Amino acid sequence: MSTIDQSRLLQMRSSILNQNQALQRAAGRGAAGGVDGAEAAPDFGSAITAALQQVNGQQAKASELSEAYERGDTHDIVSVMIERQKASLGFETTLQVRNKLLSAYRDIMNMPV
């Protein structure tokens, strides 16, 4: 088995870091560890909050259309049913994401240290 030259390892490391920085620039994140990278990518909490607000908005819209149909303000049952189905799908998706997150949390908590 041949021995690995330390200068060759440093050269490989440098090449990998350069490629990583090039990929991050291509993805629009700026240099690694730069301030631009922190501003460009939203954190997990804000992404979840935005998704929940969107689902909540969809449910509110479906409720408004349902109430308008019940009052007789609109006669378009198709749009009412479509909005209700969108709200239902959003809620089911949110529920499944929550279940997956809880399952992952349990798995992490049960890992031996």
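the 2nd protein, sequnce then structure:
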Amino acid sequence: MIDFYLPLSLKKQLMGERNKLYRLAMSWCGDRMLADDLVQDCLIRAWQKRRQLKDREKMHAWMYRILHNCWMEHLRRARPTTDLEQVPVETGGSLEGKLEQQQLAARVRQAVGRLPLGQREVVTLVDLEEFRYAEVAEILDIPIGTVMSRLNRARKTLRTELLHLQTPVVREETILRRVK
């Protein structure tokens, strides 16, 4: 009787991961439709292979591993695109503040999108999804030293590119002249 309810609770857990998986897939591929397809494929595979999951506490990493495999399979079949779509950013405040936030987010997405694939995967898993290095190494099936090296190079590249965004705004000084 317990086995009957187990798949239902697992199904809920799998569907609960959908938004996180979509966000990660979107950061990897930059295409909303492709990200949605990757997530759907990931969820289908996870459901089909649910009996392989021995420890429910590792489900999060297991799901990301499946998503990574779906992404690698897609890359083997087709060339990746580098166009990044605008994802609206919800912020409070003025319209100018919202526009500024959207422009900044778009620049960051573009900078991340220009990273080599391996660096992009590592930086999104560590910095966006907050996985530990060992978990990223397991998900991507690479040594932990490679994770640290790729992350270091990715962060240096992003830091260099994004520091240019912080250039101070130069305002023109008003010169007052005395008129007689």
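Helices lie at 2-16, 18-29, 32-48, 59-77, 95-114, 117-128, 133-140, 144-163. The CA atoms of residues 158 and 164 lie 10 Å apart.
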